[in-house]
């Protein structure tokens, strides 16, 4: 039985109902700025699975509104139906579970047995604030579940056609003998003990009758009953520990290691046990990790990312993160949920990936981007997003963002095909953004090259899916648009750095700086009456591109035809 949907209401930052649907995805990534409710949502899921029977189990400051009830609603999907459980906290009373109709799930309710199974199958919950004891308890929980699974295997007969090893058969026989012999021994022990207790009872009763002058007064000391032998009896006598060896010392307790190593060890233990199929039915188990990147160096975060996706392929996984490195948009199974604080400090969903809209080239582009720019996914944390085509405009815009303290994420695409991929990604999240690209209608290009560039430009415009997306073109490229003319590739970075850092008094550089600032103002303040320079054009329709290319294509075509005819005439004379 798998969690399909979870909703939280009136819990901490969640004043209004906030829901996440887990129906089709194994991995859910919650990301965004601080105080948006990412950690709180994971905490709420974990709290739903907690078995609480006493009052005052939840602090009063967990209520967003003290006059309302905290509601945690979970939808679980079975093979043929969806079951809904609602956990409610009122004031500081003990919480109650209800079904979808509002009826309390008590001992006689038909869902009580299923609810008990849910409590027994609570998620693994890993947080940055976990103490060493918490990590050890989590490891012990995993160890206990493996023992339960092994004992269950000893009690079940193999499937038809499935063979058992000699060692497994021997263990089954020993376990069966133990289950039979231990109760017999306990009954003998109880019989002997009860005889001693009867003597104690008789002596005490005699003293009581004499003391209180009551011949009918008596006392009996009764020994406890033992009904047999169970897996819980074995679990009580077993424990697990993790030790770390290095070149200086062996068998050091995990508790003596750094926090990052402790958390990574726990995650790797879970991953490895999943791969070896030691943790039962992982489809019904869930892993919740709050800020898995905490306390880790960058390379460890990248390694962690790979492990998390492997875990997510085997069991439901929900993480909250501030690290763009952990978000791999090339992973098709990933559902990315982005939380932001909206009006009245209520957490609302800002982004959600819903469908697969990427072809093989898009997947390749995203993987390349992840290799060359692991922070490309910072757009999840920005107020405004800009896609640029090359390094020169990237450096220029980033400089002015820092200078004027503006929060905008600039994504360097390094080509028009990748611009299209990035637009598909942002469109999937219904995002507002701007695109700045070169028209590349340079006079030096052939007619066929100009036609190809026109097609590339139109492909970008086709992905402008709503009016809050703006496409701005540099004519013919960024350097020409700001009045520098053609700049060789090996000089571009040095030249643009000199321009934006006010270190040159060359008139052309001063003018270029003004053009960049005008472009920057146009991008950063879309509602202001700011005009673009003559080297830039906001593209509204394909006709805008046609006007930039048609005359040049016709001219080049004519020149090439004349050149071809001239060569043919010269060749015929020879």
From TrEMBL:
One of the Pfam families matching this protein, by short name: OLD-like_TOPRIM
Domain of life, source organism: Bacteria
GO function terms (MF aspect): ATP binding; ATP hydrolysis activity
Occurrences of domain AAA+ ATPase (ranges): 24-342
Name assigned to this protein: AAA+ ATPase domain-containing protein
């Amino acid at each position: 039985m798998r969690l399909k949907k979870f909703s939280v209401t009136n819990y901490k930052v969640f004043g209004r109902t906030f829901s996440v649907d887990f129906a089709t995805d194994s991995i859910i990534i919650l990301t965004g700025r601080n105080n948006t409710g990412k950690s709180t949502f994971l905490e709420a899921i974990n709290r739903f699975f907690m078995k609480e029977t006493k009052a005052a189990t939840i602090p009063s400051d967990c209520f967003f509104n003290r006059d309302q009830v905290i509601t945690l609603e979970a939808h679980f999907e079975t093979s043929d139906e969806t079951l809904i459980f609602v956990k409610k906290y009122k004031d500081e009373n003990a919480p109650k579970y209800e079904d979808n109709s509002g009826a309390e799930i008590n001992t006689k309710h038909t869902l009580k047995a299923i609810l008990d199974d849910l409590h027994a199958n609570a998620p693994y919950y890993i947080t940055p604030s976990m103490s060493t004891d918490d990590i050890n308890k989590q490891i012990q929980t995993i160890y206990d579940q493996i023992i339960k699974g092994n004992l269950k295997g000893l009690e079940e007969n193999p499937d038809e056609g499935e063979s058992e090893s000699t060692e497994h058969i021997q263990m089954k026989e020993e376990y069966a003998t133990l289950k039979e012999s231990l109760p017999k021994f306990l009954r003998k022990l109880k019989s002997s003990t009860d005889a001693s207790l009867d003597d104690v009872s008789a002596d005490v009763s005699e003293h009581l009758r004499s003391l209180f002058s009551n011949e009918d007064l008596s006392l009996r000391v009764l020994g406890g009953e033992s009904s047999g032998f169970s897996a819980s009896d074995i679990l009580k006598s077993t424990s697990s520990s993790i030790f770390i060896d290095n070149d200086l010392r062996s068998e050091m307790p995990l508790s003596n290691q750094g926090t990052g190593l402790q958390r990574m060890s726990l995650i790797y233990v879970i991953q490895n046990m999943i791969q070896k199929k030691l943790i039962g039915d992982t489809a019904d188990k869930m892993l919740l990790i709050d800020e898995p990147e905490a306390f880790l160096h960058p390379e460890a975060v990248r390694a962690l990312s790979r492990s998390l996706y492997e875990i997510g392929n085997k069991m439901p996984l929900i993480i909250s993160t501030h690290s763009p490195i952990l978000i791999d948009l090339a992973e098709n199974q990933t559902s990315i949920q982005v939380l932001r604080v909206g009006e009245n400090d209520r957490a609302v969903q800002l982004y959600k990936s819903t469908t697969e809209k990427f072809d093989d080239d898009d997947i390749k582009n995203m993987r390349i981007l992840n290799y060359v720019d692991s922070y490309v996914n910072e757009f999840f944390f920005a107020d405004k997003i800009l896609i640029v085509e090359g390094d020169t405009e990237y450096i220029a815009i980033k400089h002015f963002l820092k200078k004027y303290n503006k929060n905008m994420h600039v994504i360097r695409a390094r080509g028009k095909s990748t611009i299209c991929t990035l637009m598909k990604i942002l469109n999937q999240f219904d995002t507002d953004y701007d695109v700045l690209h070169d028209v590349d209608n340079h006079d030096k290009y052939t007619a066929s090259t100009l036609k190809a560039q026109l097609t590339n430009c139109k492909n970008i415009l086709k992905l402008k899916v709503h009016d809050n997306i703006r496409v701005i073109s540099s004519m013919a490229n960024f350097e020409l648009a700001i009045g520098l003319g053609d700049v060789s590739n090996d000089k571009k970075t040095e030249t643009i750095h000199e321009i934006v850092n006010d270190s040159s008094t060359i008139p052309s550089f001063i003018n270029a700086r003004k053009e960049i600032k005008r472009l920057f103002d146009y991008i950063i303040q879309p509602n202001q009456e700011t005009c673009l320079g003559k080297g830039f054009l906001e593209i509204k329709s394909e006709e805008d591109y046609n006007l930039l290319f048609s005359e040049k294509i016709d001219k080049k075509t004519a020149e090439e035809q004349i050149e071809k005819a001239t060569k043919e005439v010269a060749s015929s004379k020879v």
